[in-house]
Amino acid sequence: MKSIEVVSIFVAVTMSILIDGYDCKVVKFLFGDSITDVGNNMYLTGSIARPNLPWYGIDLGNGWPNGRFTNGRTVADILGDMNGFPMPPAYLDPSVTEDIILEKGVNYASAGGGILNETGLHFVQRLPFYMQIELFQETQNRIRAKLGNKEAGIFFQEALYGVALGSNDLINNYFIPIYKNSLMYNDETFTIHLIDTLREQLKRLHSLGARQIFLIGLGPLGCIPLQRNLNLNVSGDCQERTNKMALSFNKEASELATELSTYLPDSSILYGDTYDLADDLMKNPIKYGFTSSSSPCCSKGKLSPFLRCIPSSSLCKNRSNYVFFDKFHPSDSANEWMASEINKKLGFLQLVSASPAPLPSITPSPDQE
Asked: Could you tell me which of 114, 105, 119, 151 has the C-alpha nearest to residue 132?
């Protein structure tokens, strides 16, 4: 199924429904990992996967860490800004009320989280997909208490649901020898294991009232700086095995979306694949105005054990030139490029009258190379 279909669900033109006196926009409930996390891990005090140190967030708002694993905005943030859609806040943010949920939805994404419960265990605290679904059930209980069962049921069936998981199951599970999955499975059978688990999770979401679900595939994970650094035989090249597994997962996920849409009642489960877009950007950064896609803007060197950007890291002066901010996560500029490409494919600049929000100015970097 083409990526255009899924992203059109993700940034669907805002509709309105009247529920017991509330004028509620159709909102989004997002499930994911660090690529879409907007602050949940900041509240997991036992987690070592938290963007709570400089220089995360340096180009957004007051420049302090805000829960996003980048220097600015996520792709979801930018798509929302471009098209005038409210962006869901982090579930664990204590300021999130029932009224905010009705207006904006909720983001359950958690850095280190994956499809499998054991994924990211070395990060100590994180929210796997099954736990994110449990938190969604808690959200449902809160809204039912406010609106009543009938109106709440309408609200959740009209909502949009996004699922973007799987990268950690490869990079922070299968490819790490301390995890038993690397011994129990081969590349093919592990992919099948992931898809079988994901099938049950999506069925569970459907049983809880989710009807419009979009499933996002994996990018070329073997080309992120973290994976390139591990390729000691051919310096700087992508890890082809990792990329092949990502492509295999994407193929199976696409077929899964079609399968579930066929027999789950009243469901629209769509698959979106941005692999080719990201692959072209990583292989041809200069073509799109970037100078580097193999090295991160913020790093302590290729052999450093630090995966995150930390205060003692070397921070590049021109962050807009880098595809990656740290060894795993794209920069604000790369996220803006991806969001723009999605909008071009969909033609939303013509479909939506809302003007794009102004882009954040790039804060001057500390005097570091």
From this structure: 114
Helix axes 129-147, 149-158, angle to 10 degrees: 130
Q: How far apart, in whole angstroms, are the C-alpha atoms of residue 316 and residue 366? A: 9
Residue 305 confidence (pLDDT): 56
Per-residue model confidence (pLDDT) at position 344: 78
Q: In Å, how far are 107, 169, 194, 203, 205 from 200, measured between CA atoms? A: 21, 16, 10, 5, 9
Contact between 214 and 76 (Cβ < 8 Å):
no
Percent of the chain at pLDDT > 70 equals 83
Task: Say what the pLDDT of residue 300 is.
Answer: 77
Residue 98 in tokens: 């029932």
Residues 6+ apart with CB under 8 A from 136: 29, 31, 106, 108, 205, 208
Q: Which of 149, 156, 55 is nearest to 364 (CA)?
A: 55
Quick one: which of 37, 38, 7 has its CA closest to 214? 7
- Is-contact 45 304, C-beta < 8 A? no
Catalytic positions, please?
A: 34, 326, 329
Residue 216: strand, helix, or coil: strand
Answer whether 272's CB lies under 8 Å from 217's CB.
Answer: yes
Residue spans of the domains in the chain: they are: 3-283
- The whole-model pTM stands at 0.88
Class of domain 3-283: alpha beta
**Contacts of residue 145, Cβ cutoff 8 Å, sequence gap at least 6:** 98
What does the pLDDT read at residue 308? 84
356/369 Cα distance (integer angstroms): 33
User: 3-state class of 105 per DSSP?
Assistant: strand
- 133, 208 Cβ separation under 8 angstroms: yes
